[in-house]
Design a protein that fits this description.
Layout lengths: L3 E4 L2 E4 L14 H5 L1 H22 L7 E5 L10 H8 L4 E4 L12 H16 L3 E6 L1 H12 L4 E7 L14 H7 L20 E6 L20 E6 L10 H11 L25
Length: 273
Amino acid sequence: MAGKRRLNGRVAPLQDAAAEPYMPPPHALLSLTEAHRAVIEIISLNISRKRLARIAPRGDGHPVMVLPGFMGDDGYNAAMRRFISGLNYSVHGWGLGRNLGPREGVLEGLQQRIQFLSERYQGPVSLVGHSLGGIFARELAREFPDRVRQVISLGSPFGRGRMTASVPARLFNALNPSEDIPIAQDRIHLAPPVPNTAIYSKGDGIVNWQTTVQSDPGHERSQSIRVRGSHCGMTLNPAIWFLVAERLAIHPDDWRPFQSSPWLQLLYPQGPH
């Protein structure tokens, strides 16, 4: 029988684990080649970094917070933050050390940080989250839609079946027992009520890509965009850097889906969403 947990003063139902479909982790070959493919992405970034800085659209100065994935910290996405900062944004890390999951004090710290940044800049904050960081970003947008401008998730397993669909699932579950997670599990797959973009790769060797797309239910300002690459290299993938810059430059009132031209199909192949 499903239990209940309290979130921000409200009682939220827990989803019965039996209702979750089983999603296997990625194929072993993808997992074993993750590091090698991430190196290729780093090399590609070094080759294209200067051109990216020239062609990426400039921003309007609004604040952006970048959240790391599971076991990562602000150092892991420092290069991406510098790139975004160079496009005229006020960029910040999450400031909570290594991301070990929604442990005691983490969600409270994120709530305080989003409130601080939105008040400091007198406007909503765009959130870019890698993997688990993207799930945190989506939940912040759900709780504080007036303080979050948009969410961009990179390989974030928010879809149904996520609890079994990743390589580090056992480690995550050991560090974060399901009964202790202070998030309503039955709503994570729902799109937050702000513009949101889910960037995913079928070459993801850490997370089953089917759990990283917004399949049900979304809304008119939701989009899933496929890229080529690994999971670990997503914060160093030049195609993703350009895509993040393009999405950040769009004002929420003028939101439109990303359109991939024929020559861009090499970088952004058509996906099922």
